[in-house]
Amino acid sequence: MSAWLDRENPARLGELVGRVPVADAPDVAEAVRAADAAQRSWASRPLADRAEALREAAAAFEDEDLAVLLARESGKPVGDCRGELRFSGVFLNWVADRAPEVLADVETDDASGRLLLRRRPFGAVAAITPWNAPVILAMLKVGPALAAGNTVVVKPSPLAPLAVSALLERFPDDVVRVVHGEAGTGAALVGHPLVRKVAFTGGEGAGRAIGALAGRMITPAVLELGGNDPAVFLPDAEFTDAAMDRLVMGCFQTSGQVCMAAKRLYVPAGREEEFRAAFTAAAARVVVLGDPLDEETTVGPVITARAAERIRALIGSGGEPVPLGRVACDLGRGHYVRPTLLTGLDDSSPVVAEEQFGPVVPLLAYTGVEEVLARANAGELGLGASVWSADEDRAFDFARRFEAGFTFVNTHGRTGMALRAPFGGVKRSGHGREYGDEGILEYAQTCSVHAPAAFRAGGGGMAAAAYPG
Ligand code: NAD
């Protein structure tokens, strides 16, 4: 290893948080070989032992020093970082509880014969993760993969590599490896012939590159990519304080740098002013832009200077900006961007048509339910969506017609998640699922063992075979 990657605190320019060594192709190959070598003996251990390893790791997740480290490297408020660590532990325990049932052999013996379905591991899994929720997004891959008997090589984002690496050390040494670096390190990992499954979360550009490389290797890949989530308020929706507080944080948590943030707000024509007033008042209650280590901060800086420039350009690209929330820091100290509502835009504006991935959200009016559905479903992305209504049945009827992998009802984002509910995209938001039983089954391949009834004693032989050869 020759080079190092430095990580600077995005809230305090010039403050070095830490550094990681860059893994080159031979380093990556060594990590994959080690993961491959350890895999068969890991898979041969009883599932109860593997589940216990997840529980043991999870027990050490509530670590204040690591929550602070995560806040310093990512710019996320420290309270959010504590929440991410705690939730990651909860998730690992949930996998440990669910895996025995989800991964159990299924055996049938009936008039057609005897059929055994086995859930077998793939081998060494490559996990490539983004910076915005680095701990939970790594655990969503590591937990199910280990439970199913795989080993894992993780490549965290160089923008938040430190806390997650420390947490990955809490798993048995030989079954989880970590390599650091940028796209080149990730490509060396995905392209290694001993990698049997790829799990990627990140942006569309990297997703295309990784999907193409995995395709060339005939390695299956889960791709969890970006979103441009619509939040649709049906005509009967009330803009209550509680609902608006949830929505505002659904837009601006992690400074809007969340795959499933609400990114387009659709309200009935004629109610824009009412909505704008309610949304602005909610932001005044719940948005405190400030240093991530200050306990009252709810929104921190964005991740890099480049991201800040890109988002400021979007805010300046048209429409009327409404600055939101309270500023509780010196904005020049870090990559701060004031949360902003944009009004007066149409659907062709970049901030509506594309994933903005920052603290700016457009307010759009619609006149008919069919019209808003078509506009919400327009575009290539289909990760999350939300529908808001006083009538839950009406909301569910509408939700059935969304082109989205996950629809929230009367909330949006983290407050609407459930461990048992699979999460992932449709269209170009990717394929494969995390969370839920499906998120565990992603890391197992079903292998069949079959004794046809035709060839068992008294079974009738060739004449009775289902598909005579
Ligand atoms: P990114 O795509 O820039 O990076 C993600 C990871 O991929 C990093 O580890 C990076 O080093 C690596 N990488 C980049 N190019 C690569 C290549 N060519 N080959 C191999 N590895 C490569 O994403 P980011 O900026 O860290 O995260 C933001 C994006 O992630 C947003 O689009 C967001 O919506 C998306 N995201 C999606 C989900 C989801 O569950 N669907 C969750 C979080 C974030």
Automatic annotation (TrEMBL):
Keywords, in A-Z order: Oxidoreductase
Positions of the Aldehyde dehydrogenase domain: 6-448
Keyword Oxidoreductase: yes
Pfam families, sorted: Aldedh
InterPro entries referenced in this protein's UniProt entry, alphabetically: Ald_DH/histidinol_DH, Ald_DH_C, Ald_DH_CS_CYS, Ald_DH_CS_GLU, Ald_DH_N, Aldehyde_DH_dom
Active-site annotation: 224
Record keyword Oxidoreductase present: yes
Source species, domain of life: Bacteria
Family, similarity comment: Belongs to the aldehyde dehydrogenase family.
Protein name: Aldehyde dehydrogenase family protein
